[in-house]
Amino acid sequence: MATPVEAVATPAAQPAAPAAAAPAPTAPARAAGPLTLHLLQPQDYARWDAFVRALPEATFFHLSGWQPVIERSFGIKTWFYYVEQDGQIQGVLPLAQVKSRLFGHSLGAMPFCVYGGPAATSPAAQALLDEAADKLARELGAGHLEYRGMQRAHPDDASWHTKELYVTFRKEISGDDEINLNAIPRKQRAMVRKGIKLGLRGEVDDNVDRMFEAYANSVHRLGTPVFPKKYFALLQQTFGDECEVRTIVTEDGKLVAAVLSFYWRDEVVPYYGGGMDLARSVAGNDFMYWNLMQAAAARGCRLFDFGRSKLGTGAYDFKKNWGFTAQHLPYEYKLYAADSLPDNNPLNPKYQLFIKMWKKLPLPLANFMGPYIVRNLG
């Protein structure tokens, strides 16, 4: 039962002080609820993506759309973990299992995605995601667990290893085409001007037909298995306006090159591309990236992300020629059944014979066989 407030007497000789205004009632402080771990379900895709888009550390490759794309394109099993507190998502970690006799058994960030790993609002949320990944890796008998962050998630933990293999190339761009063109080193700028003078032009496609033709021709020359065409179609279908297919043609409409790019916040990420044999003589690839840069700048993008490349490759040299500075990607690996870090790298001598043989395959046969092999690369 409530008790009455006692009155306080004031001396008769003193006038009573004016009563102070009563403070506004405040709700009692509510303790934060516990962090809980969950697996993503389709009905929660929108909540997941809202969190990813709001968290500065998250990337395009954390979006929920990668789950159906990877599972439907390659038949790869995925686990999209998230941590929740008081009904609000506090961290996400997309994981996938890649298992093959040739390339080993791994659990990690989405296959074919250059960035990935935990994205969380607090160390506690990340720790819960790490525990889930560790437990799953042990249950699956994985050789290793891999995170693909732009910064190390565990810089002081000796159980996590890293190695010098990948770099990324990211550079600010202006809304002014002339400034962007002049920022390209002289020799590379001359190649861009060559494509301009020859009348090359860019067209945006609502399908992946021409892009796949240019891409398949290009990777075959490099001795690399091709991705299934279905994969590119699903990317375009799933990510909509954030996934653009840009095709470069000559004045008379001949296919030169094409690139599939992602738009994320104020960034553009050219991701899959290739050129026909004609591209070399008309500076088609050089013009293609310039044409994309122009379009992205007009769309409001202020960062051009040329994507990752392996050290010592032609792609690495090409991007450096554009005046981009290489930024090391400190991918992290935690070993389980494996006794050494993975080396699924075309520069690895044990793959050189395979690459030479693949280049000799007729293109239709390479396009047929490629999707069965590439799903194991990750």
TrEMBL record:
**InterPro entries to which the protein is assigned, alphabetical:** Acyl_CoA_acyltransferase (IPR016181), BioF2-like_GNAT_dom (IPR038740), PEP-CTERM_FemAB-rel (IPR017469), PG_Glycine_Bridge_Synth (IPR050644)
Q: Which Pfam families match?
A: Acetyltransf_6 (PF13480)
Judging by the UniProt lineage, the source's domain of life is: Bacteria
All residue ranges annotated as the BioF2-like acetyltransferase domain in the record: 186-320
| Name of this chain's protein | FemAB family PEP-CTERM system-associated protein
Task: Give the organism, scientific name.
Answer: Massilia forsythiae
Taxonomic placement = Bacteria, Pseudomonadati, Pseudomonadota, Betaproteobacteria, Burkholderiales
